[in-house]
Amino acid sequence: MTSFSRLYLNPQKRGGRKLLSNPQAMHAAVMAAFPPGGGNEDGRVLWRLDAQHPQYTLYVVSPREPDLTHVVEQAGWATSPWESADYDRLLGRLTLGQEWGFRLRANPVKNARRKGERGKVLPHVTADQQTAWLLEKAPRHGFEIRHSALGAPAADVEKSVPEVAVSQRDDVRFGRADQHAGTRRAVTLRQAQFDGVLRVTNVELLRSAMTGGIGRGKAYGCGLLTLQRVVG
């Protein structure tokens, strides 16, 4: 059973501030919620932090229900434990052509290749570049971004605009241990949060994206796509 879990974090606690500021620490806390082998076939557990001050919400998608007791004790509220639901119920309701509101926090990057050299992964910098990255990725994951005609005929795609916004953009910096070298190195992860409306084009691919994630940086809070009913 795929599980979808939600937990509110307390920024007034020392543990809460640590998790909110360090994706490496958050990743460790999330993975500690499962016994060894608690992921799916490739060990995938997805998480995302939604920060809308003063509310900070941790979402986790996993192959089994997590035990987040330690996170509640260190970084949450005893009166507000985590909630988990059967995610398969939503996954089973997906059908071709449905439209959903969505949120995705991702690490949009490109592979800059030079002749005779190994490609270097570089982040997309501007909101336009990041949006173009998502539009290119979408079909591979079973959806397309709905377009708004803005007064033009609905069939006139060139005059329509995608219904998606880069609602947050930030660089997350943290230290990561290099076990082979026995040192720590600084990591900078450029993140973009997308909010918009999608249309289902391939049910199986979308289910796979919702449980396996989209793009890079999944261990550090990127890749989790969530859906909600379209309002209006």
Automatic annotation (TrEMBL):
SMART domains: CRISPR_assoc. Pfam families: CRISPR_assoc (PF08798). It comes from the Bacteria. InterPro entries: CRISPR-assoc_prot_Cse3. This is Type I-E CRISPR-associated protein Cas6/Cse3/CasE.
